[in-house]
Specification:
Length: about 200
Amino acid sequence: MANYNYDLDLQPEKAIPYTNGGCFSGFLIIPLTVIIVSAVLFYALSHVTFVSSASSLDTGIGGSPTDFVSPYNDYTLTQGVHGMSYGHMAIDIAAGKGATIYSPIYGEVTELFIDGIGNPTLVIENEVYRVTMLHGEYSVQIGENINAGEPVGIESNLGNTTDMQGNSCRNRDCGYHTHLNVFDKRIGANINPLNLLEP
């Protein structure tokens, strides 16, 4: 890892008139500063090991908290990253009606409920990840400790699901999938699940 020497001169800024007038200097300097700061932060964050400050869950099972497996043996991506408007960065994946859904992580089932619009919601978490899955028929219970790859339910179309034309699948035989959201506790933000599923 590179060593950096920062020579910071913390003197108050002095206004230097721009001889050509206008806002050209600010127009150029501010975006350039944002680009440089973003690049430095990106580099720094990609070379830092984060330590979770969250309390550890006592799962009593093995595996690394960073292990992540696919919820299906084989699946099709039916919708890319979406859900930012309601606090998710989720994908929709499907393996077919009744396909077994597997836990993507080892951890504890911390929530299992039906949300306000009828979506069955399963939350599994460990020291690193909080995984939320929607629409399945789940067979686990709150407080249950599970291993990555262990069955947690079957694929369904329960809740707010639609067909490929956007029509509701309530009481219809369509829209089977799993809505998958992953929250990374190390950075305190949702992450793109595709980055964990792709080799």
